[in-house]
Request: fold
Amino acid sequence: MGLFDFVGDIGRKLFSKKEDASEAVEKHIAEDNPGVENLSVKVEEGVAKIEGNAASAEALEKAILMAGNVVGINSVNVDGVAIKSGESLATDEEFYVIQKGDTLWKIAEKNYGNGAKYTAIVEANKEVIKDADKIFPGQKIRLPKSL
Reply:
């Protein structure tokens, strides 16, 4: 399935010491678990390796974003995850990296032709966007394919 790149020095700060990274990222995903059973996360040299059984490709994408949008995580490896539904994982084409000056309204307007559809972006990313007014440059989110 592969390796997904992130901006390692931007995001939610969950740990101070490298040795606490694995436990902190695993706990973070487990708190809002998007549908990954038998979850295990190992962080080494800025790479979060996720293992477990995802209920769907969407659940795995959400877990990837939850791990990747953490300070100190440069990439996420999901080779150890099986997707129960038999779906394959989508490509980076449905992910979007927030740019300076972006708002969810502007992103929705650009991608869907209607800024009011930003609520669908929030819903698709509720595990990584806790407040629609608090997004940041470098944050990676999912863009729903069709609205």
User: Anything to note?
Assistant: The chain has a mean pLDDT of 92. Helices lie at 21-31, 57-68, 104-112, 118-124. Strands lie at 3-5, 36-44, 47-54, 75-83, 95-97, 140-142.
